[in-house]
Amino acid sequence: MIPRLDATPDQIASAARRVMARCDELARVTSTPGRIERVYLSPEHARVNRLAAEWMREVGMTTRQDAAGNQVGRLGPPDAPALLLGSHLDTVPDAGRYDGIAGVLMALEVVRLLRAPGPDGTWLSPFPFALEVVAFSDEEGTRFGKALLGSSAVAGSWSDEWWSLTDAEGTTVREAFLDFGLDPGRIDEAARRPSDLVGYLEAHIEQGPELDRRGESLAVVSSIASARRFQLLVEGEARHAGGTPYDMRRDALLGASEAALAVETICRAEHHIIGTVGQLEAFPGAVNIVPGEARFSLDLRGEFDGERDRVWNAIARELDAIMGRRGLRWSAREVHSAPAVFCAPLLQEVIGAGIASTAPVAPPVTLFSPAGHDGMAIGAITDVGMLFLRNPDGISHHPDEAVSTDDVGLGIRALAEAVLHLAAEPT
Ligand code: HGY
Ligand code: MN
Ligand code: MN
């Protein structure tokens, strides 16, 4: 017999209101007044870690900041394997206030609802496993370009190449670690062994329009898109904007622009393949000089790694053709790569059961996630499950990103019920 969550509607509503209020509080911790921006190993990262630690202790957890700057709370026997709950607290530039943040705070409310009273006012995990909440520190990769740095350290897949990555000011990851008070030499201490873990469950806003279009609040996630990110360089020849006839021009910006349109054309013809050029810059960047150089980014995702790579090869062939026609040269540097992660069937099942406990729609919606998540790294060491919350209009990575208090309440209940279903599993 699977125990049902013992929580009144008022308790759920109060938990949801607390999540929303704390999302607002964390939104005020930003490097850029008037916008939300919080990047890895920044003073803002340190401040939200302190707030998260305070809220973890408030529900009875012991807390630690790990060797990669992730904030971790734990409830339960010191030597038991842990079920990880959580998401990330870092943001993109000019971000919304729920991407990642809501998932960390909802995880804390689930712990508050599920914890069991221990001796002397302490709180315990009522399960044969411990409950941990992880606030990952760099899911977006905003500062150094490589995403999932925090969760990669937890997965034990940190690469020494990353120490020399630099931010816009030229600060390396190594220097940023030292500035933040972390010891690069101890990064391996952040790694968790598969035997330490029962699994990883993450609640996250959908960051797309599917649930809104279907009029549903929650969804099970089937898999998380694989990702590759590139920085591309196009080289032509800077020349006088007035005196240079078109037939003599090797305009790098036009080559890059044609390339960006080709990415859209090629990806639109595919299924579950998404390519985006989010950055484009011309050099030397004067109004009266034909751009001799252009740099642009490519964010390429796919449901399957092989499909994604096939499309990258098609894009590369088209870039050869475009630049050949224009007398330009191009090159690409890959700055991030992460495999697709398929959510574990058992975790999909318990999340589906959790959703069904909130509204007996049959069967719960299941969605592929074209958005990336920390589960892409954590999937290397344990099973991953994700719960999506409706994100009205699907707008995200934008200040208008939204989620309703009611849907947060349904998500908290669904996540808590999912944990109860998992705990009832014989294995
Ligand atoms: O880019 C993504 O999909 C995620 O929000 N980092
Ligand atoms: Mn994001
Ligand atoms: Mn996110």
The helix content is 25-40%
**What summary fits the major beta sheet?**
9 strands, mixed
Heterogens: (2S)-amino(hydroxy)ethanoic acid, manganese (II) ion
- Rounded to an integer in angstroms, the radius of gyration calculated over CA atoms is 23 Å
CATH topology of the largest domain: Aminopeptidase
Q: Which spans have pLDDT < 50 for at least 5 consecutive residues?
A: none
Structural class, from helix and strand content?
A: alpha+beta
Task: Enumerate how many helices there are, as a single number.
Answer: 11
Shape: globular
What topology does this entry show?
Blueprint (H helix, E strand, L loop, with lengths): L8 H19 L15 H16 L3 E4 L5 E5 L6 E7 L12 H14 L1 E2 L5 E2 L5 E7 L12 H6 L18 H8 L16 E9 L4 H5 L3 E7 L1 E10 L3 E2 L11 H17 L4 E4 L3 E4 L5 E2 L2 E10 L2 H22 L2 E10 L2 E2 L2 H14 L6 E5 L5 H4 L5 E6 L15 H19 L4
Parallel strand pairs: 3-6, 3-7, 7-18, 8-17
Antiparallel strand pairs: 1-2, 2-6, 4-5, 8-16, 8-18, 9-14, 9-15, 10-13, 11-14, 12-14
Helix pairs in contact: 1-3, 1-11, 3-11, 7-8, 9-11
This protein binds (2S)-amino(hydroxy)ethanoic acid and manganese (II) ion (2 copies).
One manganese (II) ion binds next to loops.
